[in-house]
Amino acid sequence: VADFLRFPHQMWEKVLSKVKKAVVFMDSRCAEALHWSGGAALLLEAGARNLKEFSSFEACAENEPKAVFVVSTLLKGRTIDVIKDIISLSHFQYCVVITTVAHSVHLVANNVTTEMEGNPVFEQFEEKLCEWMGNMNYTAEVMHVPAVFAPVSQQLLLTPAFAHLFPLLFPDLEAINTKRPEKKRFGSLVDMDMNSLPVELQLEIKSLAAVLNAMFEATGTREESFAVGPMSRIIAGELAGHPQAKNRRKTAPNKASIIFVDRTMDLTGAVGHHGDNLVEKILTVLEPLPGHVTDIQVDMLELTSLQRTPHSTNILAPGCLAQTQSPAAQALWETMLTSKHKEGVMEVRRHLVEAASKEKLPIKMGLGRVTPEQLRSYVQLFRSRPGMLESHCGVLQLGLATAQTLRHPIMPRWDACLAFERLLLQALGDSDFTAVLRQLLPLMKPRRGEDDTASGSRSREEECGPDELILLLVYLYSLADEAQPSDQDAEEEELEKLERELIGQLTLVITQEQHLSPLLQKLTGCDTPEQLTMEQAHAAAEGLFETLRGLSQTRDHLKQLRSVYTASDGVHQATYRPFLRQVLEEVFHPDRPECPDIEYMSGGLTDLLKTGFSMFMKVTRPHPSDNPLLLVFLVGGVTASELRLIKEAVSTHKPGSQVLVLSTRLLRPTDIAELLFATPRLSPDIGV
């Protein structure tokens, strides 16, 4: 695992070797990966003169002759336009362009199908750069460095560049089928292959496969790939057939198994509030860092003598969760990320008390329940003490993030959602789906106005709003197949009628909102309630239900792992069974059973021959537990509580095993709603 965790830093070393005396222009996806690897400080320590946003509105002065561009996109279209704009407004004599997209993907994007010597696309672009700088004798370099991984913890690597890559859904299948001849249309998502996908999505998958191949190359690893879910099969197949992988596999000294799992195999776990994890709550209630998918803003005002005013937030830079400089803060972050809520909060208090004791500050020890006021009182001991602040800055930021989350006015909504999800789980075992869905109707009412709160009743912020209602709908529809069967025709008619009613109610709820949440802005395409018409809200609600209807069928193609629900047996309540736990139980089972749903993808022709022979002789196929290291790649995001679940599964079933989680993003519940309803899954932004 250590080699894999070193890989992101090794890639940034290659970038750092180019930045001396340069102004660095970087796009937000690369900036986010750098943020978790040491941040802008790394560039400045390596001799960079400045770091700027990758934007046509940026440029350099006459005394800044060198530029380094770091981008996560293809060197085509909009990306080239921005580079040209910056160069034309500056006075560069030396330009370096670093892209995280491999040259092989650039060839495919330029419709080149033959193998070519060298890097012709990059060489041509070098000439263009000299042209734009105005002198062919100036220096230009173009190269590929796969600096895409963000080492978020000792157990987790994220890929911010692929944060919006998400498994396809039934509306996507319909969109693909409309462009195909009648006889060649696909019956289900499982039937689709790489060539049937839109070009942008093919390029994104090829880019991801190239990045994974580079990681296995750097760590000297021969991987065996397994897949669960249609998108995972396509990605694993692309990695297995990667042209540079064949030679590596012949000589690589280390072995690892990698299981790709589609997020759509378990949406219940991603939108549910049962996680009991502190980090999940922090990510949900605190504002995201601008331009970042994962990290959040911590209000640092309490560590200063500034008065809180409407403008004070713009004076002070926010804190964050990525603490790469402090070993104490890193240890605390690991605990917060992979333990239960209560343990995480206790650990935050312990670290704050230790820091204060170390500095001999007058601390009042509190036992029992940890309160946000108690945490704030410990943090405030460090106020306006620069030396101490610098020494313990990491732990203080995590402490403030915890205190601000625990006392946040929307936290009661988390508990309200959890209570309602538990009720729905029980109801599924007793009623048909329509009857359970009907229980959401009473919740579908607009929230009261700011001044409309009766004394003693819940505040407006505590009430469930449209975001929570949408999450409850996803939760329920993802479990629709678990409901009691009923008269099919009668139920379909009843369900259609109820859905029309819910669409009407949800439209009303959305249009009555005084502020549109980020999710509603993306869903409706409007930034403010004033822009939003009833028709737009209704169209958004209709589109939402169109996607919801297919969510219960995402596991239909599976033979064994088809359910994430255990019904009540009269003694125990009905429970949700995390899909990931079921997969790991199969992987770590002492008898090593062959699970038909965990498909082996690295075999190629040899595996097909074995399948044929297996009809009349015993053939052993590779098993994910064969190798000393297991990588689990969740396509579409992982939750903090799933990281804990993986850690627990390993310590229960196979203590001492090495497991590393890779994923496209660390999820908050509303992220899933955004990825389901407001993300162009078929046409990702690859910079073209």
TrEMBL record:
GO biological process, one term: protein transport
Domain of life where this protein originates: Eukaryota
Keywords noted in UniProt: Protein transport, Transport
Matching InterPro entries: Sec1-like, Sec1-like_dom2, Sec1-like_sf
Family: Belongs to the STXBP/unc-18/SEC1 family.
Protein name: Sec1 family domain containing 2
Species this chain originates from: Takifugu rubripes (Japanese pufferfish)
Biological classification of the source: Eukaryota, Metazoa, Chordata, Craniata, Vertebrata
Gene name of this polypeptide: scfd2
